[in-house]
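Posting for a labmate who doesn't have an account.
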Amino acid sequence: MNLNDKKSKKFIVPIIIIFILLSIVAFVFTQIGPYNKNNKDDIVIDIPTGSTLNQVTDILKENNLIKNKIIFKLYVRLSDNSSKLKSGKYLFNQTYSNKQIINDLSKGKVYNDGIRITIPEGSTSIEIVDLLTKNNLGDKKVYKKLINNPKEFKNRFKFLDDENIVSLEGFLYPSTYYFKEDESEKYILNHMLETFESKYNDKLQKRQKELNKSLYEVINLASIVEKEAVLDEDRPIIASVFYNRINIGMPLQSDATIQYIFKERKKSITYNDLKIDSPYNTYKVQGLPPTPIANPGIKSIEAVLYPANTEYLYFVATIEGGNNYSKTYEEHIKNVEQYRKDREERNNSYSIDK
């Protein structure tokens, strides 16, 4: 081989390598693109709860929404979405790229074609079940049995693997859902738990560990904050009050936990109610109640994970909807008296206006 041949070979080999690489890139690019960019016919697919990435991929391939299963799964893993794909019904068509499909599945952009159910933040499990059954979605007895047996859901939701979690109360995430009448009670509860799992993201989990708290503790306290707060800006301050009480061995003394004892919410808590023997009476029992007392929204959860830095031990409502805070019991009594005075003046003014 002469010198020119050697030079030619050195020049040709890199070109071949580049050509091969470009061909691979072009192939991958076409495989992650739309299955058929000219077909806009709607395709409804159903991703069952607990589906693995392999199962999701099979469903998409069977419905002619992706071209290559191996490349799709690799794309999902590279985009760090393998554990974020959510169950439910989705509306796609063949013009969707792999990226668009993954985006919808990871964000839970489900196809809303069923009965619309809106669960307000702070709803109890009893209130949620009442709402569902009034809309012909399931049976109360079945719901009650499932809600009081988290073991039924532990295989799918690892966050429930805590012996302190004896109920799904607190984890049925408040949101708007769409269900069909023939959906099972377990499917519906699964969907709410799945929504909670998506909201309680890696950042919040990391913060929980930094605080050396269990998920049970965070959600339990968040449920109390949810029921005590009216304004969003008060949530982190209320959380700090309860933390301060816990740190000095003081009972939480939350009226909201006592309200949970009753089947129907009372207009106000009386002194006799404070004497009730119950693990939910946080005037008599120190620490957190046995279960959360409601299903909190994300703002109350964040308030518990990122509480304000205060020395407050007491708070009382104002007639505007916020709270007055105090460090001592003496200050607290003055705030209570001021609240009563303001309320009486407002009521008297309202009577005169009428």
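Reply:
Got it, the structure tokens are right above this. The mean pLDDT is 89.
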